[in-house]
Amino acid sequence: MENFQELKDTRDEIKSLLSSATQSRVKKLLQGELARVELEINAEEKRIENAGSPEGTKKQPSKKPQVSLTKITSYAWDQSPKFVKIYITLPEVETLPEEKISSKFTGKSLELRVLGLNGKNYEFQMVHLLHPIIPESSSVKIKSGKLSILLKKEKEENWSCLTVTENLKNIKQQQPKFDETKDPGEGIMDLMKKMYDEGDDEMKRTIAKAWTESREKQNTMDF
To answer: What percent of the chain has pLDDT over 90?
Structure first.
């Protein structure tokens, strides 16, 4: 096939001949040839345009099929001064190749995936961990019929539960109820005292601040 510039030169020459032709048969032959050359020029322009664009030089990646995952909700856990340990029972998990078991840790979350175990894929996730962990020192151990997830604590402190959500739920359940049989002022005092005695440092600071502001407001009103 003629190169692109030659095609354009041919087109121009045909047009020149067509403008000077007088016989109808010659004109018809030249018009047919001009149309053929124009088609070749258009096709060559598209080929050059596609070759110069990223889409023309790179193959579009095919979409990966969605993997169906079964959520793991049953587990046990305990802790040592340095680690939180989560135990998951999965029969025959030790028979899988290591590349079928993957994990991802961040400072406040973990994700575990087990693919192709007896025809099923499993996922275990925890977000908003109660306290920060050290991702690079956390790991997953494969044992006979179970997995052990070791979360390296950032600080050697006791975990009352695993997540912030679980902790809030526990606090809500343990919140003291207001005694309606007592005098309102006395009942509020007892409630605040109980919350202060049982709360952590942050709770105590919050209650002390609220009490101080309340007393200052009361003194202003009395004055």
So the answer is: 42
**Arithmetic mean of pLDDT over the chain:** 81
Q: Are 76 and 87 in contact (CB under 8 A)?
A: yes
DSSP 8-state secondary structure symbol assigned to residue 93: G
DSSP letter for each residue of 52-74:
HSHHHHSPPPPPPPPPP-EEP--
**Residue closest to 113 by CA, chosen among 71, 122, 105:** 122
pTM beyond cutoff 0.85:
no
Given a cut of 60, whether residue 82 has pLDDT beyond it is: yes
Backbone angles phi, psi at 186, to 5 degrees: -70, -40
Nearest to 103 by CA among 155, 144, 142: 142
What was the pLDDT predicted at 1?
45
Q: In Å, what is the CA distance from 123 to each residue of 60, 134, 200? A: 29, 21, 34
**128: Cβ contacts below 8 Å, ≥ 6 apart:** 108, 109, 163, 164, 165
Tokens of 33: 């040839």
Q: Who contacts 35 (Cβ-Cβ below 8 Å, separation ≥6)?
A: none
